């Protein structure tokens, strides 16, 4: 029983419990990998694949602790051993995120290689690209934003990686960075209306990504962000309107300005 007058913050308690669990798992992974000579059997067994969620905590530890030679071995796993949602894909995933650590440490020669993985046939490997780029952003956000402006002129999957890379709250604490990220999303979104490839799968993947990325960046810089979204609310493009409606469903925007969200959700119902 709780002492009289003491309340239990259920949501806060759950969040703290999840954080402690992740810290414990991370420490376990660090200690285990430090003892092992060959990491591959452990990574395959603990990958979480096949399944709905790969082991992101383990992948982060591998990226922190691994060597360039280990990352190269993981990336050399042939496609037939690393199909979608397979334990082998987890090795490739870890390798790509590991390249992000090397990039953050200053090896910019890896950028073209990371960019190629943005168009990989495996969606999780493409997610690893965003995670790799975010590692770079934590050490040099200005450089990340400058590079993503080039990716914004690339193919649909490169555009999607650029948007996902900057749509990370921890990278947007500086308002100037958030405004540049907003401009990047604006640039990418301008390629949506009237696109001849709107029925293509890669276009749909980009559209899906933009359906949440805007909300992350807008929440980081509300005044400029709301104004930017409002300019798109009047777009004739059904794809742009879908993107904006999806973002208005995100809790982070309701927490930012519930009245604004309610107003525009009502306006955009038709």
Account of the 3D structure:
The protein has 270 residues and is an all-alpha fold. The chain has two domains: 13-139, no CATH class; 175-270, no CATH class. 70% of the residues lie in helices and 0% in strands. The chain contains 15 helices and no strands.
Secondary-structure map:
Elements: H1 10-35, H2 40-46, H3 56-65, H4 68-75, H5 87-104, H6 111-117, H7 123-139, H8 141-151, H9 156-166, H10 175-189, H11 201-220, H12 222-233, H13 238-248, H14 251-256, H15 258-267
Helix content class: over 70%
CA-based shape: globular
How many distinct folded domains?
Answer: 2
Largest sheet: none
- Radius of gyration from the alpha-carbon trace, in angstroms: 20 Å
The helix tally amounts to 15
Elements, N to C (H/E): HHHHHHHHHHHHHHH
* Beta strand count: 0
Low-confidence stretches: 1-10
**Which percent band covers the strand fraction?**
under 5%
Question: Which terms would index this structure?
Answer:
mainly alpha; disordered N terminus; about 270 residues; 2 domains; single chain
Please sum up the structure shown.
The chain has helices at 10-35, 40-46, 56-65, 68-75, 87-104, 111-117, 123-139, 141-151, 156-166, 175-189, 201-220, 222-233, 238-248, 251-256, 258-267. With 270 residues, the protein is mainly α.
């Amino acid at each position: 029983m709780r002492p009289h007058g003491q309340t239990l913050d259920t949501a806060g308690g759950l969040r703290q419990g999840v954080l402690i669990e992740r810290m414990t798992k991370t420490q376990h992974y660090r200690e285990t990998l430090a003892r092992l000579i060959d990491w591959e059997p452990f990574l395959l067994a603990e990958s979480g694949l096949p399944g709905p969620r790969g082991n992101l905590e383990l992948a982060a530890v591998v990226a922190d602790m691994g060597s360039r030679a280990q990352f190269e071995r993981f990336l050399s796993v042939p496609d037939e051993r690393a199909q979608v949602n397979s334990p082998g894909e987890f090795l490739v995933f870890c390798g790509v995120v590991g390249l992000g650590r090397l990039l953050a440490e200053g090896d910019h020669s890896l950028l073209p290689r990371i960019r190629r993985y943005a168009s990989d046939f495996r969606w999780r490997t493409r997610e690893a690209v965003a995670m790799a780029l975010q590692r770079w952003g934590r050490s040099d956000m200005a450089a990340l934003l400058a590079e993503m402006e080039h990716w914004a002129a690339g193919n649909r999957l490169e555009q999607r990686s650029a948007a996902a890379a900057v749509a990370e709250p921890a990278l947007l604490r500086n308002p100037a960075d958030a405004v540049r990220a907003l401009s990047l999303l604006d640039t990418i979104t301008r390629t949506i209306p009237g696109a001849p490839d709107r029925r293509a799968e890669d276009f749909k993947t980009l559209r899906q990504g933009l359906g949440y990325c805007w909300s992350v960046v807008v929440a980081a810089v509300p005044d400029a962000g709301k104004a930017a979204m409002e300019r798109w609310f009047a777009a004739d493009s059904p794809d742009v309107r879908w993107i904006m409606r999806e973002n208005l469903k995100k809790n982070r925007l309701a927490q930012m300005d519930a009245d604004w969200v309610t107003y525009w959700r009502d306006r955009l119902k038709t």
